[in-house]
Specification:
By secondary structure, the chain is an all-alpha fold. It has one domain: Tetratricopeptide repeat domain (Serine Threonine Protein Phosphatase 5, Tetratricopeptide repeat, Alpha Horseshoe), CATH 1.25.40.10. The termini are far apart. 54% of the residues are buried.
């Protein structure tokens, strides 16, 4: 399972690419975790019990039952405190609750005032707790590329883009335990984009699109690089590609397609992109940007 952040919450990715794009739906990448006392018995027995609980935690995680996934991963860790994958899965259960908080904050409704402060704190607390688990997984197994990749996504969301580049680069240096190299390259490209290093961002995102042609998140992110460099035709091609795919469900792609068409002087196409943006999620913060555009 892979994580992508729909909005850049700026927030990319185990959201699937285009899983409402917390973009980054935002891309990322992340794999599908101690209150119980350690169980006595042979080490082999403890390891088996730990892995049995881990399997249950993964199942809950895949079903979106994040609290149950965390509870089962707690048990897995109690049976075997060196089970690095259990820490990683527990981190994912917390990370995805952070994503849920952001969904409420920016997508389902563009929340303001004290309500937004409550959701923002929840988002930040879950994110910090997730990173702690990912860091523990990487400490236990320094070659655990997926844990390093997950730390990279968290760092990007925290705005620490230099750290994100470091974590994601380290993940790519340990590919044996990566689920999808293309996804990690997409997240690394996005971290470079956030740092303002467009050449490196383009290189990584072009590589990611070779692994996954037309996949929602890397295609959208490559469009953002072209948009930043004012290469309007190339940007429009990427945003149009994502917008034409119903499975992507990317409101951001439609927003930037509208902006690009305005730059091109194609006002009818810009209005069509605006209308498509508003139709996806009328109450979101992105929808508010689409409404604010003047023609």
């Amino acid at each position: 399972m892979h994580i992508y952040i729909r909005r850049e919450v700026d927030v990319v990715g185990p959201l699937r690419y285009g899983a409402r794009d917390v973009e980054g739906k935002l891309g990322i990448s992340l794999v599908i975790l101690a209150t119980l006392a350690a169980c006595p018995g042979h080490p082999e027995e403890s390891a088996k019990k730990s892995n049995d609980r881990l399997a249950i935690a993964k199942d809950f995680l895949g079903k979106g039952q994040f609290e149950a996934a965390e509870s089962e991963s707690d048990k897995a860790i109690a049976y075997l405190s060196t089970n690095e994958e259990a820490y990683n899965v527990r981190g994912l259960s917390k990370f995805l609750r952070a994503v849920q908080a952001n969904q409420l904050l920016e997508v389902d409704d563009c929340v303001t005032g004290i309500d937004s402060e409550v959701l923002r704190k929840k988002f930040e607390d879950f994110l910090a707790a997730a990173d702690k688990d990912f860091a523990k997984a990487a400490e236990l197994a320094p070659d655990y590329g997926e844990a390093w990749a997950n730390r990279g996504i968290v760092a990007t969301l925290d705005g620490d883009n230099a750290a994100a580049v470091g974590f994601l680069t380290h993940a790519l240096e340990n590919p044996a335990r990566l689920i999808d190299i293309g996804i990690v390259r997409s997240n690394l490209g996005w971290a470079y984009f956030k740092k303002g290093e467009m050449v490196q961002a383009a290189a990584e995102l072009l590589s990611a699109t070779q692994y996954h042609p037309h996949l929602c998140v890397p295609t959208y992110r490559l469009g953002r690089v072209y948009f930043e460099r004012k290469e309007w035709e190339k940007a429009a091609e990427q945003f149009q590609d994502v917008s034409d795919q119903p499975a992507c469900h990317s409101q951001e792609a439609r927003l930037y397609l509208m902006k690009t068409r305005i730059q091109q002087g194609l006002m009818d196409e810009a209005r069509a992109a605006r209308d498509a943006c508003l139709a996806l999620s009328p109450k979101s913060c992105v929808a508010a940007q689409c409404r604010a555009a003047g023609f």
